[in-house]
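== Folding the chain ==

***
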Amino acid sequence: MNRYEFELMAFLEKNGRSNYTMRTLSDRLEISGTMIMKCIEDLANAGMIESGEMLGVTEKGLEALEPYRVKSAVILAAGFGSRMMPATADRPKPLVTVNGVRILDTLLDALTAVGIKDITIIRGYKKERFDELLVKYPFVTLVDNDIYAETNNISSVMMVLDKIDACYLCESDLYITNPDVITKYQYASNILGSYSLETDDWSYQLDADGHIMNYQKGNRYCYNYYGISYWTPEDSEKLRSDFKQVYEEEEDGTGYFWEFIPLVLRKEKYAVEIRQCDKSDIMEIDNYYELAQLDPSYN
C-alpha cells in the first residue's frame, strides 16, 4: 500500500469503526480530502476497509497492515546520569521515580500498550537494580554492558546487533506523558522531534524531501531530537553493518553516540523522517533541579 493508504488504515485500526467526517480525517492525518476520498475508494474496492456511513478496517486490511507492525524494541539504559545526582546515587537514571512512577515505566507501558513485549534493555550502571523491572515486566530481556563507562552508547548497540531489526530503538531516560508517541505500525524509518524556532540542544532540520539533515547541537527552524526511533528492515540491515564497521574500524569508534552513524557519518545511505510530536508529549529531565521542580519530594 502507498503512504496515504497506510496512514488512513493505521488511523482506522487504532480508533475503531466509526462515522468519521472528511474534515476529521483530513485534519488528523494531515492529508487532503481529495486524497483521502481516493484512498477510501481504492481500499474499499480492494476489500481492506468497509466504507459507507461507517469506516473500519476489515480482516483483509489487518493482514495488509501486518508487515508494518512493530514487534520489538531495544532500549539503551547503561549510562550513569551524573547530572541527576544525588537521585542516581543508588539507582540508574531510568529507574528514578517522578511522582511515584519510574521514568522507564512510562516507555515500557507505552510499548506494551500496543502489543510490543519483545523488549531488550541494555544495562550498565547499578545493573542489578534493573532486576526490579521483572516484577512488572517479566517478559523483558536484560543485557549487560560492563564497558559502558569506557565507551559511548554505541557499545550498548553492539551488545544486541541481532536485535536491531524493524524495531524501536530508544533511549531510556525520557518521561513519556503521551503514550501515543509509540504506535503499533510504522511505514518508514523515523526519529521523534518537536519543532523549535531555535534551540541550543541536539536537533535537526528537514531537507526538501522531508528527511533529516543537519543533525547538530544548536540550530534554528529545526526539530529537537528525542531518542525514540524506528528503523525499517532495510535500514536495520544497513545499521547493523555500519555500527559494526564504525565500532571496530573507525578511529575512536567506541566514542560515538549511535545516532551519529545514520545521521552524520553514513547519512548518504539513509533517508530518515522526522515523526513530529509536541514538546508536552515527552519530558526530558536533564538534572536534579529539573527533577525537583517536577516532584516536590526531592526538595
The chain has two domains: 3-67, 69-298.
